[in-house]
């Protein structure tokens, strides 16, 4: 997809326009997913982990695979791993709409398990990048294969654990009503109609999400910022916009477990995308010879996920204004990551 040449101002305006479409589509998708979960009697944490996380990750999937085909190793890894801390910080922003620490609300321990498995996969990926893979099979590193196998095992375990005993939520607020985007409780739209709307929302997220990425790259070139820094900031932010809107919308309507699973599930997808990217990248193992930015992104991903793991285990925690202490610490850690990325750019 090629667009005529644009000035920096025009690129910024188009970027904002595409962001608006993605925001609307993501918000609508959250309501549709919530309604479908009710109609098919599915756990909302499972819907967030599998449906929402995959749908909102479509721009990352397309961007990662196209960058891998273009042999842009740094862009692939910086976009994937840089998005993990950013998406976790998005979950922290949901506290404003949850009116307190969002980690108080889950009724099951499976979110703590999601965070634990995510920390495990991030740690394994960091170890693999530190070892600087020298062995490959058909130019595919064993590290990316192992990460894909670990991801499959994590999803299997989470699916099995979904029926575990409940936790008790604390300080649970009433959900908000949003009639403009919400599916009314007395809506007579068939399940097929809701599914069609869901597919349409996913298609809009994919198309306009890709346009976001295209103009994020164009803005990077026109502004003169480095590709490493732009990969973990503006580009990761563009591809994470669907997660932002769906998570905030889910929190506003009281679907807290779906919001949390959406973010953790998206972060797991960011890791498993290393495997198809490694297949398409023909310069050897894609995790070989990675930059310092990649190691930092993985490390900060571990930090912010571990903070939320503690928050999920400690059911009552101090609040700073409308934020839970864990969410505030996640935001601070994310801001620190931006400073670190800029320092090593």
Description:
This protein has 345 residues and is mainly alpha-helical. It is 72% helix and 1% strand. The chain contains 14 helices and two strands. The protein has helices spanning 8-39, 44-56, 58-69, 73-93, 95-98, 110-131, 142-161, 191-223, 227-231, 234-252, 256-272, 274-280, 292-313, 325-344, and strands at residues 319-320, 323-324. The protein has a two-stranded antiparallel ribbon. Strand 1 (319-320) and strand 2 form a beta hairpin. The longest helix has 33 residues, at 191-223. The two termini are 29 Å apart. The model has no long low-confidence stretch (mean pLDDT 84).
Give a nutshell description of this structure:
Helix content is 72%, strand content 1%.
Which secondary structure elements does this structure contain, and how are they paired or packed?
Blueprint: H1 8-39, H2 44-56, H3 58-69, H4 73-93, H5 95-98, H6 110-131, H7 142-161, H8 191-223, H9 227-231, H10 234-252, H11 256-272, H12 274-280, H13 292-313, E1 319-320, E2 323-324, H14 325-344
Antiparallel strand pairs: 1-2
Helix pairs in contact: 1-2, 1-8, 1-10, 2-10, 2-11, 3-4, 3-8, 3-12, 4-10, 4-11, 4-13, 4-14, 6-7, 6-11, 6-13, 7-11, 7-12, 8-10, 10-11, 13-14
